[in-house]
Specification:
The chain is an alpha+beta fold. The chain has six helices and four strands. Strand 1 and strand 2 form a beta hairpin.
Length: about 150
């Protein structure tokens, strides 16, 4: 991503995507001691919490301890969500955040995915984030944090 695109992306996130970007900033402050790297115009943090990945505005959070392939796939997916944020602006939390949270955490949905072998990325808005991430992330930096020795399956 060139400088102008990064500047436009960040401007868009801090204006049109302000609600989720402010929540992302608060989380970035909370996890300020965790490793952090730039991904295009976004900022990715390798968090030490007991939860999975999330994107809020231009801020991406992925858990520590993933294998490099899974980490790269999750970063790509979450990077896709940052583009959804830029496109949907203040509607992102309602149109992407809520459905994504429910698809990931509602016991009925967790059981449905497990019993029917439905990939997490098969459902809206995850399938859209996956497409956006696959389109834009490989051009950025795959395996961003993978130089760490502490990998587990």
């Amino acid at each position: 991503m060139n400088r102008w695109k990064i500047a436009l992306y960040r401007f868009w996130q801090w204006t049109w995507g302000l609600p989720q970007t402010l929540v992302g900033l608060a989380m970035a402050i909370k996890y300020r001691r965790c490793p952090r790297k730039r991904v295009g115009g976004a900022v990715a943090t390798l968090h030490d919490g007991d939860w999975g990945g999330v994107s809020l505005g231009m801020f991406i959070f992925v858990p520590k301890g993933l294998r490099s392939e899974r980490e790269a796939a999750l970063l790509s997916h979450e990077y896709g969500h940052t583009f959804q944020s830029a496109l949907l602006g203040p509607l992102y939390l309602l149109l992407v955040g809520v459905p994504s949270f429910l698809w990931a955490n509602l016991p009925r949905n967790v059981q449905k995915r497990s019993l029917r072998h439905i990939p997490y990325e098969a459902h809206y808005p995850e399938n859209w984030a996956e497409k956006l991430g696959n389109k834009h992330f490989p051009k950025v930096q795959p395996n961003l944090f993978s130089s760490r020795p502490e990998e587990k399956p």
